[in-house]
């Protein structure tokens, strides 16, 4: 054991081994900051070009096109930012002497990968902080609204779902035409809200709504029933459309997540290759 220790000490004294770490954190941090800055610049440019936002009124075809454009832009962002950051990391790192070229290549690529990792975490932290500020503002607004609601806890009658069951206790076979319009509208809203939530409007509710419409508008029972059926059909179609839009949004979010994963994977590869290229230019010059 003592002879091996003596040999290692001799190797260190002769310069064969070094006690210093082979990780050049200065070059890594410099390349990471450059990559993060370029990523933010390109992200802002993408927003200006409409590559990172979509109108909530867009058709599914437009949303699909948006996801493709976003995927391409994310890959371009990672390609440019990771390439520049990785190259700077490899080029700025100190040159190693008396080392095999394969080992130099490995260390350069490792430095490029570390620079990409630091830049990714840094960019994610900045974006997360911005998102947190936005969410905090939203939470503050919700708390303010909640405080106002606590000060005036009386719910709006048309939004009181429990009122539907209470209304059913006092339904009249012949609704009065002189009833308050606001009360009639609130009761109608509660009926439709509860029935559509349950999936369908029962015939009894349709008949009662037709009586309300007939009493308020002067239409005969047949025309009032036809009007109720038409409105119920429209509301059901709107509900189905909302469900379809929500499903499309879920699929879009899933696709965007996959594209982000692929772009980050490409960025790691580009940063490693760019660092190796920068290391080669460093050794040549």
Describe the structure.
By secondary structure, this protein is mostly helical. Helices cover 79% and strands 0% of the residues. The chain has 8 helices and no strands. The longest helix has 64 residues, at 221-284. 21% of the residues are buried. Mean pLDDT is 74; it is low at 1-14.
Count of individual helical segments: 8
Strand content: under 5%
What is the overall shape?
Answer: rod-shaped
Compute the CA-based radius of gyration.
33 Å
Total strand segments: 0
Major sheet size, sense and barrel closure? none
Structural class: mainly alpha
SSE arrangement, N to C: HHHHHHHH
- Give unreliable regions as ranges: 1-14
Could you report the average pLDDT, rounded to the nearest whole number?
74
Rounded to the nearest angstrom, the distance between the terminal CA atoms is 43 Å
Summarize the amount of helix as a percent range: over 70%
Please outline the helices and strands:
Blueprint: H1 2-14, H2 25-48, H3 60-92, H4 101-151, H5 162-169, H6 181-198, H7 203-217, H8 221-284
Helix pairs in contact: 2-3, 2-4, 3-4, 3-8, 4-8, 5-6, 6-7, 7-8
């Amino acid at each position: 054991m003592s002879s091996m220790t003596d040999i290692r000490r001799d190797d260190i004294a002769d310069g064969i081994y070094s006690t210093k770490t082979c990780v050049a954190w200065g070059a890594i941090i410099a390349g990471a900051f450059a990559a993060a800055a370029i990523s933010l610049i390109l992200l802002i440019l993408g927003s200006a070009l409409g590559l990172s936002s979509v109108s909530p009124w867009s058709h599914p075809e437009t949303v699909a096109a948006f996801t493709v454009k976003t995927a391409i832009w994310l890959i371009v962002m990672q390609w440019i930012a990771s390439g520049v950051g990785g190259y700077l990391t490899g080029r700025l790192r100190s040159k190693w002497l008396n080392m095999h070229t394969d080992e130099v290549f490995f260390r350069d690529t490792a430095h490029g990968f570390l620079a990409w990792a630091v830049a990714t975490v840094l960019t994610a932290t900045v974006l997360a902080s911005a998102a947190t500020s936005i969410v905090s503002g939203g939470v503050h607004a919700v708390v303010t609204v909640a405080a106002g609601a606590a000060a005036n806890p009386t719910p709006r009658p048309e939004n009181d779902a429990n009122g539907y069951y209470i209304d059913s206790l006092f339904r009249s076979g012949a609704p009065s035409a002189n009833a308050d319009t606001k009360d009639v509208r609130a009761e109608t809203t509660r009926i439709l809200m509860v029935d559509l939530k349950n999936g369908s409007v029962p015939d009894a509710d349709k008949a009662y709504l037709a009586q309300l419409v007939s009493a308020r508008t002067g239409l005969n029972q047949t025309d009032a029933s036809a009007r109720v059926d038409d409105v119920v059909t429209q509301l059901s179609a709107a509900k189905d459309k909302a469900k379809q839009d929500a499903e499309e949004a879920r699929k879009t979010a899933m696709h965007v997540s996959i594209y982000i994963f692929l772009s980050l994977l490409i960025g790691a590869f580009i940063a490693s290759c760019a660092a190796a290229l920068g290391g080669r230019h460093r050794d040549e010059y």
